[in-house]
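note to self — DONT lose this again. spent like an hour looking for the file last time. sequence + predicted structure for the chain T wanted, 63 res
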Amino acid sequence: MSQPNPIEIQKYLSGVDYPVTKRQLLDKARENGADEDVLAALEKLPERDYNGPNAVSAEVTKA
């Protein structure tokens, strides 16, 4: 598995209505057809509310 870049992840989060929880991000990514690498990256995110795409991208790049 390779680490997807934040832009790739955001593609699968299209339509997310922020703020959202980690679970909502995972559900939307699955709904949008995200691959296993993207889902794995989102699974590593801390359990908290995310107030926008930049917050998600910042956490993904830390993981």
